[in-house]
Automatic annotation (TrEMBL):
Domain Glycerol-3-phosphate dehydrogenase NAD-dependent N-terminal: 6-162
Organism placement in taxonomy: Bacteria, Pseudomonadati, Bacteroidota, Bacteroidia, Bacteroidales
Domain Glycerol-3-phosphate dehydrogenase NAD-dependent C-terminal: 183-323
Function text: Catalyzes the reduction of the glycolytic intermediate dihydroxyacetone phosphate (DHAP) to sn-glycerol 3-phosphate (G3P), the key precursor for phospholipid synthesis.
Residue sites binding substrate per the record: 109, 258-259
Gene field: gpsA
Protein name: Glycerol-3-phosphate dehydrogenase [NAD(P)+]
InterPro entries: 6-PGluconate_DH-like_C_sf (IPR008927), 6PGD_dom2 (IPR013328), G3P_DH_NAD-dep (IPR006168), G3P_DH_NAD-dep_C (IPR006109), G3P_DH_NAD-dep_N (IPR011128), NAD(P)-bd_dom_sf (IPR036291)
ATP-binding among keywords: no
């Protein structure tokens, strides 16, 4: 069977649902794994995901559902991972087969805690998936806007640029225009960092700082991102490309951004735990903040905005006082 072969989607949330919609614009049939059998049963009864993006209707004849992760790997050639990064290890531990014979696309904009490994690094180290058999989805692509069929520009990154182009064609349709890149590490890191900075943006919003201040915060954040990414992966890249700057901007400003919402709640006075409970969805930046902090013990990059978010989320520092320090001593 020609690459990419039979495609399977892993995840039952908002992003997985949006990706399934995209795939079905190109593919006649997809496989789809969800952890909970009852979610699958409700999906089959209603024709849509009962919990996420329920306005998106699906033709069930074009989908084979699985609650057995091993079986979807058996029946698929290319797997798109769209589960929250903190849960990835738990899902993969249920596997009863090798996966290094598959092509893996990570749509997870996070990092594996507590290993502090990017998704592709984790899959390569622990599951022996060759680097050339992995791609990532980067760039500004909120699931809610995909559901509304608003124009979206993701980036498909893979060391094998020809494979990236093939995957991009699978993504492309009248409202998705995918580009390609070979900068897997840089785009993965940018996807983690933009969530951290979106929490900072949300904190400022919750504290009622205005748009002028937000603009200064985000302009400093992109400089931090560039320093960190270039230190970890020193190759030539343009940080102003949509895979980096574009993803940062949409995550910091969009009302669909979970991380911005989470940060806004913190700024309004919620505790971290109460904000997490009320959101009912994963804010990847919470986990990414700690992972970036621990990664930076090795690289020692100057990232004061990310450090501020860490102190607020993990050390109990006052958000109001931390932003005051940031605005008076660091932001410019």
């Amino acid at each position: 069977m020609a690459f990419p072969g039979k495609i399977g989607v892993l995840g039952g949330g908002t992003w997985a649902t949006a990706l399934a919609k995209i795939m079905l614009n190109h593919e006649k049939h997809i496989n789809w794994y969800m952890r909970r059998p009852e979610q699958i049963e409700d999906f089959k009864k209603t024709g849509h995901n009962p919990s996420y993006l329920s306005n998106v209707e699906f033709n069930l004849d074009r989908i084979t559902f699985y609650s057995d992760i091993t079986q979807i790997f058996e029946d698929s050639d290319t797997l798109i991972f769209a589960v929250p990064s903190p849960f990835l290890k738990g899902h993969l531990e249920k596997l009863d087969r090798r996966i290094d014979d598959k092509f893996i696309i990570s749509a997870i904009k996070g990092i594996v805690p507590p290993d502090n490994l990017l998704i592709t690094d984790y899959l390569h180290r622990y599951y022996n998936v060759p680097s050339e058999n992995m791609a990532i989805v980067g760039g500004p692509c909120h699931a809610e806007e995909i559901a509304l069929e608003r124009l979206t520009y993701p980036t498909i990154a893979c060391p094998d640029i020809e494979k990236a182009r093939v995957i991009a064609e699978v993504f492309n349709n009248r409202f998705v225009k995918a580009s390609v890149s070979s900068d897997v590490v840089g785009i993965e890191l940018a996807a983690v960092l933009k969530n951290v900075y979106a929490i900072a943006s949300g904190i400022c919003h919750g504290l009622k700082y205005g748009d002028n201040f937000q603009a200064v915060l985000v302009s400093n954040a992109i400089s931090e991102m560039e320093r960190f990414v270039d230190t970890v992966s020193p190759i030539k890249r343009n940080i102003q490309d949509s895979a980096y700057l574009g993803d940062l901007l949409v995550t910091c400003y969009s009302s669909f951004s979970r991380n911005r919402t989470f940060g806004s709640m913190i700024g309004k006075g919620y505790s971290v735990k109460s904000a997490q409970i009320e959101m009912e969805m994963i804010a990847e930046g919470y986990y990414g903040t700690k992972c970036i902090r621990e990664m930076n013990e090795k690289y020692n990059v100057h990232i004061p905005v990310a450090d501020m978010v860490y102190r607020v989320l993990y050390e109990g520092a006052s958000a109001r006082e931390e932003i005051k320090i940031l605005r008076e001593q660091i932001l410019k």
